[in-house]
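Lab notes, practical 5.
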Amino acid sequence: MRAKAGIFIIISLLFLIGTVAAAGPFTITITSSKTYLTAGYTDNQAVINVNVKNSTTNVNVSGAAVTFSVADPSLGTYQNTGSVLTDLGGNANNTFISTTKSGITNISVTATYLNATSTQTLLNGIKVDHDNAHTATFDYPSESAVGTNITFNISFADRWGNPIDQIINPGKLHTINLHVTGPNPYDCIFVGYGPDILGKQLDIHGNVSVKVQLTSGAGPNVVTLDSFEDIPITTNYITAVSTEPFSIKQVFTPDSPAEIPADGTTQFTILYSLFDKFGNPANQQWVWVNTSIPGEEQQFKTDNVGQIAITYGPRSTIGVINITATAVANNTVTISHSVEFTSTAATTMVVTANPETMASRDVNPSITSGVTATVTDVMGNPVENESVTFSLGTVGYPGGPYNVTSSPSLSSYGTITTDQNGDAMVQFIPGSFNTNTNAVNYSATATGNCTVTATWVSSVTGNSTSKNILVTWKNYPYLSVTTSVNPSTVALNDTVDVTVAFRGDGWALQPSPLDVVLVMDRSGSMDDSMTGHTKLYYAKAAATTFVAQMNQSRDRIGLVSYAGYTSGTGTSIDITPTSTYTSVNTKINNLNANGATETREALKQSVDLLKAYPNSNPKAIQSLILMTDGNFNWKGSPIAMGQARDSSYTGYSTNNIETDDFLWYSGLGCSVGSTSCQATSQNMSIYAKNNNIRIYTIGFAANVNDFDPQAIAAMQVMANATGGFYSYAPDGATLSQIYTKIAGDLKNDAGVNTSMLADFQNVNVTGVSVPGAQVYDYVYNNTASTKITWQDGVSNVTNQSAQWAANHQLNFNIGTIKVGQTWQATFRLKVKQSGIIDLFGSNSLVTFNNGTSTLTLPHTYLTVVPSLNATGFQLQQIDVTSSCPAQIPNSAIIPLTWNVTYTGGPTDISEVVSYIDTSGAHVPFYYGGYHVNGNSTITRSAQFDMRTVPPGTYSIQVSTSTADNTASTSPSCGNYTYSTKGVTFIRLN
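Output from the prediction step:
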């Protein structure tokens, strides 16, 4: 700050520094010609006057030598660096010259006269203020979210770098004017002020800090500083960028309806537009786009105008697909749309029957087979509204003649129109046979068959096509079999998974009749207490539970109870096999406990009982269920351990297990006195097995140690040898569970020995027999092919590559399938032939019932197209980048080049180049356009002639877009300044 010339300020003495005390010989007064100096080379000198008086007489001292010093020499120096003598008035003068640095420092002078010396310091005697403001340093983020507040800082300095502070000269205030403008809706302000700040005072350190609230519209916000001292008008740009997505829009082409043909070529075009909460395009935002088909999800990023342009498809299979787009940054922003791929013209028909082999109506009066004609296009997609009629061929009775009671028929003989699945269906009603075994030509294995013919008339060409399928009906057992292939339409050289499943729930696999004899221990120990009741109490309850699970219309139950030794307690046949279960339960409930344990005798009489009362059905299953609470003793071992004794022998144990002697039965092999009878029918397990009787054994005691290990071993031997099982029951509840388990095991025994040959030596491809080696390759996969799930639920994978290599066949030994059980195998094939393939070769066969019954696998069709274009999303994108050239000094022409990179199909590209002034307005000055055939990168150019615009500061931006509304905008280039200062204009009239 410049001080006024000619004004002197007398500064009172503050304190003395030097060898003389405060009452030294001299009184020194220091004055300056200026209050403030200015850093730099203008107004930077001040005369420093020193007056020296005798401190005693107060007389001016003449001829005293005065030296001058400054505490901070960086602020300036004295013109005279030596000593200056005082004049007659006691005054000495020196000139202080400041440098380019601003600041405050102390002045010190020392007066010496006649060996007397005094020193005086003037605190803050030199004050060098800054020069005019010359530079402004701005500190602010180049971009921030729309509608947010950002801190905008300015630091001012003179040309020498000194801050424009108010520390040196607090009386001089510095104020500036600021303005902020932005894009529509023009709502940017300085927080607490408005769009303008007038007379904003710099703080004590020469800084200004304000808050700028950016516009809610995306784009450049311009903060302008009016000219200030030596600083010209200055503009600064802060880009308001869109925030996280708040909404989304979509445009599908085609739409209303959103459908295209599944021809492997046609695609949907989708344009997604994302917006923030202020409605600005949400650019550079990731979006998940997925469909209802697993694995098709993909992520895309919005371009500079908040858009994503993609294509979906093509597909060769029909179907309705839901497409959903969800913003990654805000998953509540989501939108969905359903599109449909429709079939093309119908070209092919195939016919299937489910089942192809079925029961005759005498076996199952309600059974039918669904005969389906499926009409498809060239891609294998179903075609609806095609006309199909069905008719029956000649009926045959292989192996006949049979006693036929009804002929087969169809549920409809008129024209049937295919549905949306391309299917036209009728029900085939099989014939029936006489069930009277005495009737002429009665047969227990009667079979009938005939062809069903489907005739399709094309709605496009009017041509007709006929296909036949052979259906068979039988009156004897068959398995339920299903086949499937996934996927049903594939491209050449793709893989498919083939599944064949058998289930024991068909009409033929009903449980066999059961003949069961309950063999119950009623020895004296059964009267022992067990948790509040006797063991016999719980045994009766468990036995009646078993009875309740039998089928009274089919199954028979007998009861044999036993004790032994004590008179009247031996084995008793309480009831012969009967279907009157109330009588059985009465006999069970009447049992009483007393005596020893003659298990051997009870089993012998139980086997004889079943022999004496055979079931009229030869398939009936016969079994004994032995329940005992202790060791066999009276009459010895049931498995013939020890020495054979005749009926006169009475030396058996009555308390402990008897393994030394056993009662010998006539006619069952071995001889009295022998000790080697266990391999004969004297062993009750062998006796039962030879008579096709299964034995289940139950040990019932609170403690398993109540049984001798040899007793347990004997029970296990008898059960395992005959197909039953042994169980231990520590309480009544467990005993009931075991009886229930036995009931289930008996009822499930309705399986057949099954094997399957999947033959692929010759395969039908679009009506032509082709060697399987040309059609498929078997593919082993250690987790998926060949994966077999067995009847017990256990799964494993086996490698059938060697079988395939040998003869293009796959063999399966399935075993016995029981009621309710399922066996399933899945194997993988690579398909090498295009067309409609009847999956299994004609020699594929299932055999069961020990090889006496056979079954062919159902016709299963696979469509293989030569080239199945990948379904999915393809990004359609345009991107523009500008070269941003530097401005040539004194030039008003800005040459601009930009690169346009496009990904997608053929389209027209439009471009606009705009200049942006300090108000933020975008003014186009160049328009262009051209056509591209697909993916491309093209360099374009234009020039901005600033002579066509008013003087000022400008930036440039390039925008491009496609005919499909995909768009991109380059970052702005600039600032470019145009001025007319120093330019002479000639006015022409």
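Observations recorded by the TA: The helical segments are 535-548, 581-589, 599-612, 684-690, 709-722, 732-747, 772-775, 801-807. The mean pLDDT is 87.
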